[in-house]
Write a structure and sequence with these properties.
InterPro entries: CobW, CobW-likC_sf, CobW-like_C, CobW/HypB/UreG_nucleotide-bd, P-loop_NTPase, Zinc-reg_GTPase_activator. The protein is α/β, with parallel strands linked by helices. The protein is 32% helix and 24% strand. The structure holds guanosine-5'-triphosphate. Residues 14, 16-22, 49, 105, 184-185, 187-188, 215-217, 284, 301, 303, 308 line the site of guanosine-5'-triphosphate (GTP).
Length: 344
């Protein structure tokens, strides 16, 4: 790459648990020696996504290549966190050939795209494309849908209101910014459901954007990278519910960390967590636990009531085998009751 060429950056966005980290891992598995740096941003404070990437064993996912921004959503911390991080990456003796930015599941992509117009980086890096990952089954379950009666009632009081569901707003902002939509978790959907979801997603897209179905974010790197969108030059085509607003808040959502006791088995733990997720309508849980006598750490992931686990790495000698779990949901979660249920 000549010094005059801008480094392309791909923004991977999508709601909590849609499969962004899984997709990033898949891209890295196809890097074939290409120098790809990853910036990963999380809403929860444990830095789990970064940890899972670093321990995945794929060449390129070494610690040096991954920068974690765990200080809230990237859309609100662009000036403090994102820009210095970007500058530091570009100033490396061997700058990355491509940069992947995984936003938090609650981040609005537009302020991040706008940041690429800042004088310090505008001439050095460009948004190659915004890839929006969609959790197919969650959309099919109506997670992002409004209650039409509630919207009508609230609209009577507020002309500007267009959603009663805060998830719907984040979902639309993420689709509004997309250059490519990945309809993920197709393994959990039949053909008719995929066709219906394509139509539903298209109804939220402000312009013609390709929608590709995927399992585990497994798409060819040539489909995902090299879109050449220069999204920072094209902001008007990417509507946001927060256009015109100087600032926005994430106070519709809440996140906290609770200790997770040692469980008898992975199956028993997952069954218990899934029940709690349903009971308290929790959106996302992820964390680590220890099993008696097992040398490996158990990583657990929940999206709604759907859970998965794997053993991610050995506990280090002398390391406290303390389990921890990040819980994310809509504001007003009963933290004490959830912590008690997990401890019980
Ligand atoms: N069944 C199924 N599960 C998937 C698929 N892709 C990802 N998952 C699972 O969904 C869960 C969430 O995946 P992640 O890749 O961590 O999602 P994310 O969007 O990075 O999550 P956040 O960073 O918390 O917003 C994990 O348990 C994944 O294994 C898929 O295509 N099918």
């Amino acid at each position: 790459m000549s010094k005059l060429e801008k480094v392309p950056a791909t923004i991977v966005t999508g709601f909590l648990g849609a499969g962004k980290t899984t997709l990033v891992r898949h891209v890295m598995s196809q890097a074939a020696g290409r120098r790809i740096a990853i910036i990963v941003n999380e809403f929860g404070s444990l830095g789990i996504d970064g940890d899972l990437l670093k321990s995945c064993g794929i060449p390129g996912c070494e610690e040096d290549n991954i920068v974690e921004l765990a200080n809230g959503c990237i859309c609100c911390t662009v000036a403090d966190d994102f820009l210095p991080t970007m500058t530091a990456l570009l100033d490396r003796p061997e700058p990355p050939e491509h940069i992947l930015i995984e936003t938090s599941g609650l981040a609005l992509p537009k302020p991040l795209i706008k940041a690429f117009n800042w004088p310090g980086i505008r001439s050095r890096v460009t948004v190659d494309g915004v890839v929006t990952v969609v959790d197919g089954p969650a959309v099919a379950d109506g997670r992002f849908a409004d209650d039409p009666a509630a919207v009508e009632a609230q609209r009577a009081a507020d002309d500007n209101l267009d959603h009663d569901n805060p998830l719907a707003e984040v979902f639309e902002d993420q689709l509004g910014a997309a250059d490519l939509v990945v309809l993920n978790k197709a393994d959990l959907l039949d053909e008719a459901a995929v066709a219906k979801l394509r139509a539903e997603i298209a109804s939220h897209l402000p312009r013609q954007v390709k929608v590709v179905a995927a399992r585990e974010g497994a798409l060819d790197i040539a489909v995902l990278l090299g879109l050449g969108a220069a999204a920072e030059d094209d902001l008007a085509a990417r509507p946001s519910h927060h256009d015109g607003a100087d600032d926005h808040e994430h106070d519709d959502f809440d996140s906290f960390v609770v200790p997770m006791p040692e469980a008898a088995s992975a199956e028993a733990l997952l069954e218990k967590l899934s029940k709690i997720a349903g009971e308290f309508d929790i959106l996302r849980m992820k964390g680590f636990s220890s099993l008696p006598g097992k040398p490996m750490r158990l990583a657990v992931q929940g999206v709604g009531t759907r859970f998965r686990h794997h053993f991610d790495r050995a506990w280090a000698p002398g390391e406290a085998r303390d389990g921890q779990l990040v819980v994310i949901g809509q504001a007003g979660l009963d933290k004490a009751a959830i912590a008690a249920a997990i401890a019980g």
